[in-house]
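Service request form, structural biology core

Requester: graduate student, group of Dr. S.
Request type: structure prediction, single chain
Budget code: on file
Notes: please return the result as structure tokens.

Sequence provided:
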Amino acid sequence: MTLPPPRADVRERIVDAAADLLRDAGSPAVTTRAVADRAGIQPPTIYRLFGDKEGLLDAVAEQAMARFSAEKVASLSSANAPRDPVEELRQGWSETLRFGLDNPDLYVILSDPRRGRDSPALAAGIRALEERVRRVAAAGRLRVTEARAVALIHAAGTGAILSLIPQPPGERDLALAETLLEAVLDRILDHAASASPSPDEAGHRTAAVALRAVASDLDALSPSERALLGDWLDRVIATD
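Core staff response, request fulfilled:
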């Protein structure tokens, strides 16, 4: 007697089938009948495992984002082979832009706050961005808080992709995304930091941001001392 395939295998086959349909023909093509036919299962199996089409689309988006987030983490340079942290930030932006435009239906699903707010894969993608921003801060190149920089980059990237998706692929104005990126970098980076230390207030804030990025790693200080140092640095960084 042939045993039925394990539940996990069936689930993965259904998600892969739905992802293929979504990529090839868009969201309208992802019907339970079409997915069932492609996956070689009966439609009730989809309802049993995912609840409905929306649940299936959530699973497809989560899988795609998980794979992409893993690639973004893997593309970060190691401590043994460091790169310019600003260039790594640009690379992350380019990777995200390419992912969004190559997978427009998936990206629209992921950008829906009702779906994305509880997504472990989306959270992993944000953590990859946070790591890139932390490296910029630790290099003394950031003049706003890390949280502020992450929020600005994420908002600008999401807006750029959602603005470009409706345009025909051959007519997309990719310069729009680059202009947004440069505007954000101009706002968050201390362009003079790599040349020479600045004695003015902005220079002090940049130095504070850099020290704040590594404050939790200062083992010579006790936990309470590190917390106090963090509070002091946050006050300096918050100075306008």
